[in-house]
Amino acid sequence: MTDARWERETRWIYYDRENFQIYRKAGEASPVELVDEGQHGLAALRRVPLFRMQVSEGLWLTNKAALLQLEHFNKSNALAWALTMGLFATPVVYSDREWNQIVGESYYIQLGPQDRFGWTEPEGKVYQIAADNLVQLKDEIYRVCYLMNQAGTPSGGDLRISGISKQRDFSVTQEVLRAYGDAVKESMKQVLRAIGAARQDGVTIDVAGLDEFDIDDYSGELDDAKKLLDLGIGSETLKKQVFKNLAFKYLCDARQEVKNQVAEEIDGMKYGE
């Protein structure tokens, strides 16, 4: 049994305010054929069923980081090749005599009293410059993509201000994610309102959410919760809410049924007994 022959299929879909048409062409020699046509779902509204989701130029992250990524890729390959070639050092003989000996693994060389033998090895300055430049390029890629918390190498001075700097970096990332969320919400509103109008549901449709994103460091959340509980505030409700908040952040990818069960178990617990 042999696999069927692969062939390229091209489709064209045309919309106007009431109708649609779908054309198909399979293979180079096949003619273009009409496979479907009729009225689309928004024909009663006399509206083309196409919706645009648009973001500003600053949110096209690939456009901002593409050249930097290409430069990082090329320099990384060049550095790896140079380091590999540097391992194959060439022997060098310093002598005033005529040199006609064969050099190899199964040969030996004879030197005079004043002759010297050595190897051509790279000094390494350009390697260090290249390695430092790769780190700078990596940090710049993170910076233009609004991920400043991923850029930079921590040092002793940076650790002392890491809390404040992380909050500042996370706030920038939050704003960018909110901008993406606003674009998605606007498109969802257009689609859902068009569907509601076509169905004549007579309802008001709005889209909420996509304005808070859990990108903070979870260890920081744990430290803050521990400090809050160590204050000894005599409130079971506060303790339960703190535990549920931590559990939900840790279980952000879990099913809602699991989260509901965890919340019920926390609410049923007794503290201070």
Question: How are the SSEs placed, and which strands pair?
Answer:
Blueprint: E1 9-15, E2 19-26, E3 33-39, H1 61-86, E4 90-94, E5 116-120, H2 125-144, H3 156-160, H4 162-199, H5 218-230, H6 236-250, H7 256-267
Antiparallel strand pairs: 1-2, 2-3, 4-5
Task: Outline the structure in words.
This protein is mainly alpha-helical. Among the domains are: 9-45, no CATH class; 57-145, no CATH class; 217-273, no CATH class. The chain is built from seven helices and five strands; from the N terminus they run E-E-E-H-E-E-H-H-H-H-H-H. The strands form two sheets. Strands 1-2-3 form a three-stranded antiparallel β-sheet, with no helix packed on it. A two-stranded antiparallel ribbon has the order 4-5. Helix 5 (218-230) packs antiparallel against helix 6 (236-250). It is flat and about 105 Å long.
Helix percent reads 40-55%
Strand order of the largest sheet: 1-2-3
Tally of contiguous helical segments? 7
Low-confidence stretches: 154-161
Features:
273 residues, mainly alpha, three-stranded antiparallel sheet, two-stranded antiparallel ribbon, 47% helix
How would you briefly describe this protein structure?
This protein has helices at residues 61-86, 125-144, 156-160, 162-199, 218-230, 236-250, 256-267, and strands at residues 9-15, 19-26, 33-39, 90-94, 116-120.
